[in-house]
Amino acid sequence: MRLIKENTSEYESFHKSLQYFTKKSNARKDLRLISFENHVSSFDMLDKYSFFSKNLYSFQKKIQSIDSVKELNSMFQDFVSRILTCKEVEIFFFNDSKSSLVPLNAEASLQHIALVNKTYKDGILDWIFETKKATIIPDLSKLTSNGSSVNQIIFPVYDRKSNYGLLSVLTSATKIQEDSLENQAIQILLSMIVPLIMTLRQKQSINKLYHELQVYQSKVKNNVDVYAIGELAEGILEEIGEPLQVILSYTDIVENEYSVDPEVTEKIKEQVRKIRELGDRLVKFSGLNKPKNGNSQPVQINKIVREFKNISNAALNILGLECELDLEENMPPVLADPNDIKQILTSIFSIIKNDAQKGGAIIIQSKYVRESVVISVFTTEQLSVLNNSESGDSNVNVKLIKDLMHKHEGVAEFNSLPLKGTIIHLVFPLKRRLKI
Question: Mind giving me the DSSP string for 243-274?
């Protein structure tokens, strides 16, 4: 214990003079000296980390239920604005030729777009992608005596193989440390949001390609008779039919009014019958070469389901049934006849209506699963026509559903159990065989 009689202002307080040892690493088993001052703000840091972790967890939970690039980008901008005081937050991606950077947000300001592309043309981005670190670039056009009033913070977006784009933040901040919570939080947000955005954009691109493919496929399927010989045969037979009838008529006249050997007229009639028989074969051949799928075209399943629900709402209310839709958005179209799909849904409604009870419920769900679009109909009632395979196979509506699904190269699955209700799955394949 020390007794100090003079002025003590030059001495540190007793608690600040305390020191303790801790292990520096488990491997080396050595000790390092740590002063108490290093831990003065530990509780403040803990609160700060807790705040950031809660925000990041909340962000992760929210983006899991979003399937729109615009909504994802809007949510990301909102979260970044909570971390940094900023005027604009925009994600940019390189175009296909990598000649410029295009904002993800179609409503991004022209000034911001010009600023990012000027940075790219000046070669500054090349250096940023080499360092792979967040970098502050002052806006020289807004330079004052106290420095730039607006700075641009660029966060590169990349992986091991390619540079995809960047996050540009216009802010008044003059620095951002690599080990700061702000920098780390934004980097984590980017690592979560960018793969989702790229996946959704790729999905939209695939859907567009599917649509274009099916448009051309439907044109070929619906116009294949142009390339078949039957198209030519029909035109020829129309012209031949009338002269053949004239020949037969005059043959009968000659046979009745003139003394002609019946054997001669019979040979004429026999030859006419042969020509007609050949004509009938050509007509049948022409019919076989016409498309069997009717008016096939790219169809958005969700659109038809919504239309069906709107039409059947009145009947559902009378029966005391509630109907809810659970439709997956951004699904690719299927190549089908929309009238056939409406007929399938109508037949399912007819089956459910026979066993409907007030207070029951129907859920119609659509999903994209393994290159197929699946419509699932759930009802709380056990349907009597599906109690056994014999009654199901003999039911007109069930047979119609199965036949129409087979026509679309799909499958209809029925499952009805006591106390569990009924599930009907309609599986429409995206890839269809081209029948020529």
Answer: HHHHHHHHHHHHHHHS---HHHHHHHHHHHHH
